[in-house]
Write a structure and sequence with these properties.
6 helices; alpha/beta; four-stranded mixed beta sheet; seven-stranded mixed beta sheet
């Protein structure tokens, strides 16, 4: 069964309750390990959604701010915070203009499955610039995304299909993702976007980041499903 994604209160609640296999078993564990090994107590989750990772990192001692533009997702995050009282703060904001977040105030910034939703290369660069602004000197940006080479090929956890006969080299090209959920169903994300590895790395460098390392988490495929880019504010 494939569900067409549309952010409303009902679906936002379902998506909180049932996680993507890819996030839970591939990208998620790798990001958690990197965050735990990264210095800096204050963490900002840019595009935090319902606060899944915010709660994980708050429980291991991070002081967390979650930022998202989707109010339905933030309502879930705020509800869980009222229940668990982990000290997480949430704000609604566009990631290109983080009003109310002071420059140089965070040691770690996280962008997890955010870039895939951005329709313009210029907007991606603006998000990188804003992330750099709010990081402290030597602060770290952790980006978790679908691997740029993982297009038009099926895997156990789903696949990404480019539209309109575009190529790998077309940054911002529209596509759709079909992802496996932990309940065995599949969800269609119609409106995702593709960026090359060259674009991501060079845009970070051009924004003033130094690339610390790149990780391709291994799982059950013979090719990388996801990628993690860790960059330090220069």
């Amino acid at each position: 069964m494939i569900m067409v994604i549309k952010w409303d209160k009902k679906l936002a609640s379902k998506y909180y309750e049932v996680e993507l296999v890819e996030k839970k078993y591939v990208l998620g564990p790798a990001i958690k390990k990197i965050v735990k090994q990264t210095k800096g107590r204050k963490l900002v989750d840019l595009g935090c959604g319902s606060g899944y990772y915010c709660r994980i990192f708050a429980k291991v001692g991070k002081k967390v701010l979650g930022v998202d533009k989707n109010q339905e997702q933030l309502n879930i995050a705020l509800s869980k915070e009222r229940e668990q009282k982990l000290g997480i703060k949430y704000i609604r904001s566009n990631l290109t203009n983080l009003e109310g977040v002071k420059s140089g105030s965070y040691g770690i910034a996280l962008l997890n499955f955010v870039i895939i939703e951005i329709p313009s290369a210029n907007i991606v660069k603006k998000i990188f610039k804003e992330a750099r602004r709010i990081l402290k000197k030597n602060g770290v940006l952790i980006i978790g995304e679908l691997h740029p080479h993982n297009i038009n090929v099926k895997s156990r956890v789903g696949h990404f299909i480019l539209k309109n006969n575009v190529s790998y080299f077309d940054n911002g090209a529209a596509g759709k993702s079909i992802a496996l959920l932990t309940n065995g169903k599949k969800m269609l994300f119609d409106g995702d976007h593709h960026y090359t590895l060259e674009f991501l790395v060079n845009s970070l460098i051009g924004t003033g980041f130094d690339i610390k390392f790149i990780k391709e988490p291994e799982w059950k495929e013979k090719f990388p499903i996801d990628i993690i880019i860790v960059a330090k504010k220069g």
